[in-house]
Every structure is written in C-alpha cells, then in structure tokens.
Amino acid sequence: MDFSQELAEKGWYHSFELPDGTRIEGFNKLDWLRKRYQRFPIPADLAGKRVLDIGAWDGWFSFEAERHGAEVTAIDCVEVANFLELQKRLASRVSYRILDFYELPEAGLGVFDIVFCLGILYHLKHPLLALEIVCGLTTETAIVESFVIDPDTWQDHRDEVPTMEFYETDELGNQLDNWIGPSVSCLMAMCRAAGFARVELLHTTGMHAGVACHRQWEPVPAEAARPAPELLAVANNRTLGVNFSARKEEYISCWFRAAEPAVTRGQLRLEVGGFGVPALYVRPAESGVWMANFRLPPGLRSGWSPVRLRFADSLFGDTTLRLAVDLPLRVDRLILNGACDGTNWNDREVKAGDGGFISCWVIGLPENCDRANTGVYLGETRLRVEYLSEPDAEGMRQINAVLPAGTCKGPQACRVECAGVSTEARTLQVV
Ligand SMILES: C[S@@+](CC[C@H](N)C(=O)[O-])C[C@H]1O[C@@H](n2cnc3c(N)ncnc32)[C@H](O)[C@@H]1O
Questions:
Q1: Ramachandran class of 93: left when φ > 0, alpha when ψ lies in -120 to 50, beta otherwise
Q2: Residues β-bridged to residue 154
Q3: pLDDT digits (tens, 9 = 90+) for 38-51
Q4: CA nearest ligand 1 atom 3, residue
Q5: CA–CA dist 28, 56 (Å, integer)
Q6: pLDDT value at position 1?
Q7: Full set of structural domains in the chain with CATH
C-alpha cells in the first residue's frame, strides 16, 4: 500500500494517545513519533519556552511540546480538521495559525526559543530562504528534519561538494509538492548558510535526516588554552560603515589582533547580538592583525548589536564593539567647525597630489554616522572618507577625506552632508 492510500484509509497522519486512554492510530506510529521527539536536544521541561511548529499537520509535535510545558504556536498552510479536533479534545492552548511558510516573517508571531521544521523543507521551492526564515525566528535551537537523497551513503562522500536534486513536477514520490532532495551534507551546509552557528546531525533514518541547528556557540571553555583575540574593528564589508540592512545580502568584516602564528576559520567564535556567527574567510592583514568575514546573522533586532570575539578555546576578548541594524539616520543640523589640510594642518588650505587629504570637524552627526553615509564634498566631488572619529565631549567628530588625483587648484567649497542635511560650505584653497 502506498503512502496516500494508507493515509486515506487511516485518516490521520500522526497517532495519538489521549489522556482518557483513547488511541488514534495514524500513519506515523506513536513509538516512532516519541523516538523522534526524544532525539531533539531540547530541555525536557519547556516551561517558559516559546515553540513554533511549522507544518504541524495533525499536530503531534505541537501538543507534545505543550505537554512539556511550552507555549506553542503551530502553523500550516491548510487548516487540518484533525488538528482542531485534537486541540478541543486536549483542551489545548496551542495557538493555531493558517499561514504559508513565506508569510512567517510578516506574521507578527515574535521569536521562538525552539522551532520545529519537520518534514516540510523538501516541500518548499525556496529551501534556503525557508531556512533563513527559520533562523530569523529562532533564538536557541531549530530542529530540521527532511527527506535526503543519501541517508545511508552520505559518509562515503562527506568531503565532496554538497548536492541537491530538484524535482520540477512529480519525480519524487509522484507528488507535485516535493521540490528538492538534498544530500545530508547539503542539508547541513544549507542550515549553516542560513545563519545558524552550529549544525549537529542527529540521525539519518529511512529516507530522512534530522539536524539540530543552534544559534549559540558551545559554552565558553572553563579554562582558556590561549589568549583571547583582541577585536579591533568591525565594518560592513561592502560599505566599510557600521550600518547594516537585514534585508540585504551583507557581510561583516572584523579585524583582530592575535598572537597566534596561524588562525583558521574553524577557530573563530564571533558573537553578534547574542548569536554565534561562523567565519566564512580569514586572512592575515598586517603584523599580528587578522581580517575575517562573517554573514550578518538573521533575526537581529533593529538598533545596535554588540559584537565580541573569542577562539574556540579562549575566553572572549575585553573589547565589545557594535554594529547598527536598520537604524534610521536622523540629523537636525550640521555645523562645520573647521577644515584644513590633513597632512600639515594649514587652515583653509589643502595640498593636492598624492596622499593629500582634508581633515574637518563637524558637530551634529548622528550616532550611526559612518564612512559610507557621511559625505565630504569639495565642489561637486564627493571625496572618499577614510576616517570618522568617535564624538568628543562636545559631540564633535573629525573626518578625514582623500583628495582624488587631478583635483583642480584654486578656491573650492568644502561641506559635509549626512542624511540629506548639509553643513554650510567653507572655502578651501587647493594648492
Ligand atoms: C510531511 S508533513 C509534516 C508533518 C509534521 N511536521 C511531521 O513532521 O510529522 C508536511 C506539512 O507541511 C505543510 N506544508 C507544506 N507546505 C507548506 C507551506 N508552504 N507552508 C506551510 N505549511 C506547509 C503540509 O500541509 C503538512 O502539514
């Protein structure tokens, strides 16, 4: 008997044992459901935890998490009568919402300590987008179970480039809503690429694999085996500014000092806004300084997020820096307090030619002004900002901006602009 026939005959996808002893025999046996749940590395006591069950179907995993004390939200793209019946019979408080996967970010459900994404990934045309959505909604751990194409042989080719099959119509199981079949390593790679800090393979069983995707690094070691890296700077890899947009494909660059002769990606434990972020790339920058790139983790709240760094076997360094996510840039009034040659400090005069730059001092720049969103203009030309200081006690910042080759000599108007607001212009003699 095939899946659809057996399902139609039974009428239930999940099996249940109700408090009065009534048993409902569904396609998935109770022992099997319990075994699956027991493998999840989540606390037995879920009191105080919020759980999201995506694609709940009859709802066994939702009701089980509720039985363990969680506040549960279950979603499905269709209303399942069995779920509603069970909800009534169990007097369950699970919040049941009919939503499509892709509607989740806008659904206003909040974030969840634990997310179940069970048996649904291969039904989705956009699996990586779906995993990014899952990651953005998860604050601790997501459990992802999916159909995989190599449950028994994945270890034979674990070092090869991961692969995924794509089913345009009914190639998999004669079902139109089966879109993809990842290899085990592809499933794990996609979960990491979606933004999780650590992805742990729980099992491969039958045609499926289960993984636990953690948003935090493993605990800091009790004893440090080496000194912590010293975090020196953090910037948006595209703009070199401090601002990031959660909707864009943006990456974080970090510069840090380390006494190590060699540093590998796998050693780095960056934390942004409390989420662990794996390194994508690391290279030596200059004597003792290293540069590493990281993904902006999904799910950061808009505003400032703290950034800190450690090695797998070190404590965190003393420095915590920060980056701004989707923080509006607000400026009332800008005052240009001075502008001069940045190399010899000659007032109102700047030397053109190799390495020439202007230093200027501005009051009124917002907290999240940066090298990308603050413009220094000489005449009509926007100069490249190389340095923007923190504000002093009077709120004044120094900006250094480079004169491009071929800058015309003679008097030129210099001004600074941020968020559409400009300082008054000062005349600088380009000599
Ligand atoms: C194979 S069942 C998995 C049921 C349960 N999570 C489990 O693992 O036992 C897939 C579930 O995902 C739901 N589903 C499929 N595509 C969906 C989508 N785009 N958005 C939300 N739910 C979806 C289906 O309605 C169904 O309830």
A1: alpha
A2: none
A3: 999 999 999 999 99
A4: 119
A5: 13
A6: 58
A7: 3-214 (3.40.50.150), 230-325 (2.60.40.10), 335-430 (2.60.40)
Distance CA 49, CA 359 (A): 53
Q: Name the pLDDT band for 281 (thresholds 50, 70, 90).
A: very high
Q: Is 180 exposed, middle or buried (0-12, 13-18, 19+ CB in 10 A)?
A: buried
Residue with the nearest Cα to atom 12 of ligand 1? Answer: 55
Residue reference for tokens 């996510």: 325
Ligand 1, residues at Cβ distance < 6 Å: 55-57, 76-78, 100-101, 118-120, 123-124
Atom of ligand 1 nearest to the CA of 53: 6
How many residues does this entry show for the chain?
A: 431
Instruction: Classify the C-alpha dihedral 116-122-126-132 as positive or negative.
Output: positive
210, 143 contact by CB (below 8 A): yes
SS3 of residue 191 by DSSP: helix
Following DSSP, what letter does each residue of 86-118 receive, concatenated?
HHHHTT---EEEE--GGGGGGS----EEEEEEE
Question: Which DSSP category does 215 fall into?
Answer: S
* C-alpha–C-alpha distance, residues 389 and 366, integer Å: 12
Question: What residue type is assigned to position 384 of the chain?
Answer: R
28: DSSP letter: B
Q: Which residue minimizes the CA distance to atom 14 of ligand 1?
A: 55
Q: Which atom of ligand 1 is nearest to the CA of 57?
A: 27
**pLDDT tens by residue, 205-254:** 999 999 999 999 999 999 999 999 999 999 999 999 999 999 999 999 99
What values do phi and psi take at 395, rounded to 5?
A: 80, 15
